[in-house]
Specification:
mainly alpha; 4 domains; two-stranded antiparallel sheet; 11 helices
Amino acid sequence: MTTPAPMSRNDVDAAVVGLVAAHDRISAAMFALDGHPGLVVLRGDELRGKTRQVATETLGRLDALWSQFAALRSLLDRVRTVRGARARPGDDELAELTLLLRGPVLPLAPDGMVVDDPLAGPPPNWVTAMGLAQELERASAEVAGALDGVQSAYARVASRFEPLTRALDRARTAADALGYATTGAEVERLGVRLAEATFDAMCDLLEAAGPAPALAAEIEALAVRLADLTRLRDTYPERMGRLRAAVDEVAEAEAATGRAYAVAATKIANPGLPPAPDTAAALRAHLAQLDQLHREQRWPRLADELLVVDRSVAQSRESATRLRDAAEGLLHRRAELRGRLDAYHARAGRLGLAEHTALAERHRTARDLLYTSPCDLPAATRAVVAYQRFLNELTERGHR
């Protein structure tokens, strides 16, 4: 190794000031690295993939930096000791200080660790104190940047899973309030899946893609369902009140249909109507079952049964209305035929055909059918059509 030219006392003091300042900056940087949140992540035991590779490289490099920093501090302590021995150092002190400050006095292995025995193993790379200080400042900044990247990746992955965790916590609270047995098992099942997905993401957070869309959709669906069940629990009395009123409306509609059926059966022969609706009693029995489910706090089953009752009530109301319209439609059809027959008869009178024997016979046949109870609507329809056609024929003959 080449021996550097001796330094003057002023050069030594200036170099010591520069080395002390560099040491203080490096000391602050190293202790900042030691407390960096990203370092906690890289020291995890379950890392995989790219994150594990970065952890191996970064932790190894950090060990080398601490080794170098310790050697630099020891060297600086020696410099301070030699320089502080005399106010005006002699030639021997200046020579030693020159070697310590400018000479290649720190042996580094290929991995950056300070070599304890330079004669053992492959030849080390000898560096000067200030050269090592400069390298330490540069390398510590690079390691800090790597740790910042790890911490940013951790925050990014955590932010992707945090909303699901909060949603599941709300779902768990809602499930507990509703009675844990009803939906607690589903909450716990999703909780296990979310924990596993979070763990997998954190094991390789540098390449994690976030929670699977299917898992997020299931948690969201569960949260919505539990919110619906909670709303059902809180609004059940009002909802049942509306349902009972709706069933009463069904009963009234079915009673009106029954009355229309009775009139149709009296006035129309063979009306061909389906059986009269009678679902109100069954609907009221179903409402009693809902009350039992409510007392037992079986919220999911209660929600499902409420949907069934809602649909049944709507269908029963629609069916009663449709059948009543069908029964009343028979009477409307008879009235329509009567009106048509009267209009045709009036037309015959205006044409001077009212006393036409064959036409009058057809009129009597149609009228008898329409004004006899019960009325044979198909026969009456045919009779009215026959009267109309014969009247048209007579009219055409008169024109010819």
